[in-house]
Amino acid sequence: GTSERELGWLRATTSFVNAPSNNPGRATARGVNAGLEAGANHLGWAEGLKGKTVLVQGTGSVGLELIRFLVDSEARILVMDVDEEKATLATHVAERQGGCLSVIDPRDFATTPADVYCPCAVGKTVDESCARFDLICGSANLQLADPRVAEFLHKSTSLFIPEMTVNAGAVIEGILVHKWGEAGRQKAEEHIVSTQDRVTSLLKRAQASDMNPMARFSPPYS
Description:
By secondary structure, this protein is of the alpha/beta class. It is about 45% helix and about 10% strand. The protein has 8 helices and 6 strands. It is globular.
């Protein structure tokens, strides 16, 4: 719920806030996309997300930018948003980039099949019904409806990538641009892209120890 207006108020009193030249949605989406690539590789998808159906929940600043990455990956994109105007805008964004996107009613979420689920808006939408997705990776905070869902997904065939491993792009960019100015922007992009390597490492450790990826985080998810 924090918009440019609120960030402007903060900038009037402190320099420790994301610079207006940054695009926090783009930076965050880049990290999520890197996590998706790591997940696709872990699942053995030779062509990545190409041809996979990806359901994006939320078409705000992050969801909209993630859609741009998904179009580049040649994924089949589904979106849902309680704001119909935002969902329509997402359709136009995908079309202008040469992609195709379909909008679904949020009320149909529980029965909509897809290969990948990207929660990028409200939290607590990932429950046991989400075991139908092969891969779950998004930017929304506190995605699990219940902490025990992580273990349930681990015992199923669904791969859940914890949001805190992929959604720090805007923070990374904000810190490095604040420290080094425009020279820090390239450093930030490189660090965000390397999210793929960090997630890959996490997934390998989780698999080797037969532990769900969330088990690596303490205190317990709540």
